Structure formats: C-alpha cells, structure tokens
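Quick entry between incubations.
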Amino acid sequence: MKEVTVDIKATKSSKYPIYIGENLLEKANDLIKENCKATKLLVITNEKIDGLWGDKLKLENAEKFIIPDGEKFKNFETLISILNKASELRLDRKCAFVAFGGGVIGDMTGFAASIYRRGVDFIQIPTTLLAQVDSSVGGKTAVNNDFGKNLIGTFYQPKLVIADTKTLTTLDDRQIKTGFAEVVKYAFIEKTCGENFGFFDFLSKNIEEIKKLNLKFIDETVEICCKLKASVVHKDEKENGLRAILNLGHTYGHALEKCSNYSVFTHGEAVAVGLQVCFDLSLALNLIDENYYDKASDLINKFEFNLPEHEYYEPEKLIETMKFDKKVEAGKVRFVLPTNIGEVKIFDDINKKILKEILK
Amino acid sequence: MKEVTVDIKATKSSKYPIYIGENLLEKANDLIKENCKATKLLVITNEKIDGLWGDKLKLENAEKFIIPDGEKFKNFETLISILNKASELRLDRKCAFVAFGGGVIGDMTGFAASIYRRGVDFIQIPTTLLAQVDSSVGGKTAVNNDFGKNLIGTFYQPKLVIADTKTLTTLDDRQIKTGFAEVVKYAFIEKTCGENFGFFDFLSKNIEEIKKLNLKFIDETVEICCKLKASVVHKDEKENGLRAILNLGHTYGHALEKCSNYSVFTHGEAVAVGLQVCFDLSLALNLIDENYYDKASDLINKFEFNLPEHEYYEPEKLIETMKFDKKVEAGKVRFVLPTNIGEVKIFDDINKKILKEILK
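Done. Structure below.
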C-alpha cells in the first residue's frame, strides 16, 4: 500500500492521507476508523459500482444511498436527494458521507457533505482512474447547472482517500481512457507543479504496460499523479494562482463537453482533444519547438483515445462557451499552455483569431 | 459610526469590520470599496426593503435581484434562483453578493455566495434588528429543508457588515420585537461570552428608550450585541463548543417554529418563549435562584412580546422535534440553561420528564 499526504498550507489541521493499492476496499473499514471519528457513515454510490464492488466494502454503522449514474445527473436534484436522505436518517453532525464511485459521485458527495448541517466529514473511495488520479484529490466539489459545468460547489477536503486500484479492472476501455487523459496531462505540467519524477519519460517508457492495466505500473502512476496534485493543492487550495495549471486542456475540453451537452465525449476524451489543441496553440504561438510538439503529440496518440467525431462544432460557438468558463474573468479566454517538457504557463487572454484558426 | 471587528482565530486572513450607525446606506459604496475588491456586485433584496430603502443604497457596478419575502421562501428553490441569476449575468469570481435585508436574505445570500463558483465575496447590509444584532454576524449561512430549519448551509464569513440603524425605523412593532428577543438573550449569556459590559443592567435601565427605538440607545445595543457575538465567534467559528451558547432559547424556539410550520411565530417570538422555558427549566433544576428568575422574567416581560397563542402544541411533539435539532446528537435534547446573571451552561441530555412538566 502506498500513501500520499495532502497538506493544505493555508488552513490549520487539514492534512489527510491518500491510500493507494490493490484490494484496499477490504481494509477500508480500518483505514476509516484510523482517520475519521464519524459515528455513522452514509455511503453514496450507484447501482453499477455497488453491484460490482459493494460486497468488498464492508463498513460498520453504514447506510447506503444509490444515485443515478452519469454526468447528466450531477445536478441540484440529485444533490438534494442525498441531503434529504441524510435528513431522513436523522444523521447528526458526527456522521460522514462516503463517496464510493467515480468523479460524479465524488464531486456531489463532497458538496453534500460540505453543506449538510454546515459540514460533516467526507471520505473518498474513488473507483475510476479519473477519480483516483485527479478528482478525488484536492477538495473541489460541485454540481453543474444550466450555465456550465461545476459552476456551483465548494472547496472541501476529505478526511482520507482510499484508491483501490483493483476496482479499475472492471472499467471498460472508454472509462480507462478517460483517466489516461488526466494522467498524460500530469506529464506535461510536472515541473511547474514543483516536482520532478521524470513522469513524461516514465509514461513514454511504460505506456504498453500501463495501457494493459498492469497494476504494478498503475499503482505507481496513480501515486505520482496524486503527489503532483497534492503538491499544487498544498500551495494553492483555492485556485488563486498555481492551481489553474491543473486545467491544462480543460478550457477547450469543458467547452466541448458543454457544446455537446455532456453526451458525446467523456470528460477525458474532451480533455484529450483539449491537450492537443493546447500543443497546436503553443506551437502556433512559438512557445514550444517542433521536437517537443512531436514527442507530446506522439505520447497523446499512443494512448489511442478513439475520439468521437467533433468537427461539426463551430469554433465561434466553442470560443463563446470558453468565455464563460468558470476560470475566466470578464469575457477573456484563458489557456494553460505548454512551454517546455513538464512546464506550462497561464495565458490570460488568448488571441481569438489564432485560436479560431487552430480550431478549424 | 461605530466599528466592531470580527476576527476568526482558526482561519488566516478572515478579519472583517461591522459598521454600525445611522444613515450608513449612503456611505455603503465607499465602505464596500474600502473592504472588498469585487469588480461587480449582485444585490439580493426583496420588494419591501427595496421600496423603502433601495433609493438610499447607491452602489456602483451593481445588479439587483429581488427574491420573495419570508421564511417560507428560505429554501433551495430561492437559492437556485439566485445562483441562476448570477450565472445568467455571467458574474465571474471577482464579483460579490450583497445581502440587503433581514435574516432570511442574509442567510440565503451568504449561502449562495459560498457556493457560486466555489465561493465569491459576500457583503451584509442587514436592515432588521434581528439581522443587525445576530444573524448578519458570524458567518452562518443556510436554507431550510423539509426536515428542519437551517439544516443545509455553510460557514462563510462576509467581507464587511454595514448596519444602518436608520433602517430599523420602518420596521413594524412585531419585527422590532423579534429582534429584541435576541437582544435580551445576550444579556443572559454576556459573561459566558467572555465579556462584561453590564448589558443586563444596561437593558433594564434603558428599556423604555430602547423600546421607543431611540437610536442613540439602539446603536449602543447593536454594538454590544455584535461585540458579544464577535467574541464568541472568534473563539469558536464552527460551533465545536462555546458557540452553542448563542442558542439559548433556541432549542425550544426552533421546535415551536417548526411545529407551527414557520407561519405562526416570528423567530424572535419563538425565541422569547424559548428563553422563558429555559428559565423555568433552570429554576426547576435548581440551577438559578428565584431572585434571578424573577429579574430575568421581568426583563423578558418588559419587552412585551405579545405572543400568539401556542398552548395547543403538544409537549410530546415538541420534544420529538427538539431531538432532531441540528445541534443535537443521537436523539438527545440539548439545552443551554442560565446558571447566573450573564452566565449559561450547556446541558447535553435534559431529563425529558421534567421538560414535559415545564412544557405543560
């Protein structure tokens, strides 16, 4: 079992562990007891996860609540159903909400925990690669509304994260790939995170084993990604600066997801396209040389993201949508762009003409 | 103009001023600029307040959003309407939400600010006595749900509070009285707050001027209440201990409000009954002597709360409701009870037989 610590600099007493390894579900009850004083647990999950892995997760003093599966249910309606369930069970302030599932479940459960009785304990048990390497770490919680993705939410750190990599073995190819998009993202931002694990080379070298889901390599991949994210969140929990680099590929990715009504692309697929757009943009703006451009594009391609058709999305519409990205101020289009291997910079107002050219 | 500072011990950089005085609405624009960097303001108010005082509040770069008036609209539906308005206006992270009204507006606007784009700046301009002496200070935000009052919310501190006591002059008698209930509460807890302004004597001596709304005395009253609350919140923002004393009279008060569907009693009226119940209970439990009991009851009576009939509420039903009070753990009934002038203690499990006797 690997352990990564997240330590938020700005807040007292908000240090927590991420446990990574195979078959951790069976140890979850003990790990929770070690790290959380909650007297009652409310496990939020969906039917699929529960059917596949629910038997392995045996928690004491726990109630279960099943929510519908999918990004389109990441809304106020589902959030309120969680809060009503907790109220109905008369859970008091000493309870904890446990997110058992992917990013959607994690984001909503965390949000619910942060506002139920003005905040109860929160535990993450991510079961997708995307959630394990990214969304379960760092305390962002959210729901979508009609105007955009994750527009409503809080910053709320869990008490612990338990990433059982064995759960990844029941994901289908598309679900694994959506996680790989965030994984490869970390290779492009590692040094700006303030670390140097040689992740770009690690991925390039071991890509076949990783794609085969050899858990030895997956465990290490998850660990490195969590360390990189922890390093960023330590310095900037609330995205006042540095944390924005985690959004490499996301400005375009979010717009693509939104314009296709969250029903065509998985998050990772949209990010994968977004990453390539960033490299195209960086090259067009002379921020990187062709050598790095080729190496990076090659690494992205090797993951074989099998993207749905998306040429029919109008550049104008996408740009208009990007202007309303959560990260953006006053109608500008902000991009995180690669400048060197593992290095990125934030550009606050991208020239829309060049952007439009690229998008064509 | 008086100024009280709230300084949250546990969090870095969350110090903020409360300004108290007559005609501060006219100075609000400058006070906001001094204390908040927001580039755009969204003022949340209701028709009544806006009609009476909207003209005096001239803010630059501000949009206004009118919500319906009353506790029964303090729910997710209204909250979502505020968030949709902000989204529709495409307000970015540098905006601030301004609560211009009473406690309902303050609680909901604060909650909305705390979750819009994971938190934007929040400004309180309370226009009722209840809000000025109590709810606008300390950062509790909330909505009600079907299971209870304020069950969903956050702790979220404003950037500043502007209490224009002139706005109190258009409140009707019942609205003023609802504020007096919280005012007199502070007289009973002052020393346990860690202060000693002689507030019990101040109130006893000046009650006629205060009831007449002589603003000289009102300003001082608001100032003392804010100082007492600030003193408590400084030590315990998130109600892990001391802060619970602010709920003197509220265990019973909340149950009464809930059982009458929030439509019979104002919050203060319910608290006024709750305060008397606490003194009855304290006397029955030999926590106070008859001398203090008489003095306290006399002070409560002098405020002439003109309570609606409430004898028809069943003690059993009220006790059952109290068990589900947000402050309570595992079916116990917690009461804050007076033990001496200005002093209270928290009792975690009140004997339900004695309680039932009192309630009869």
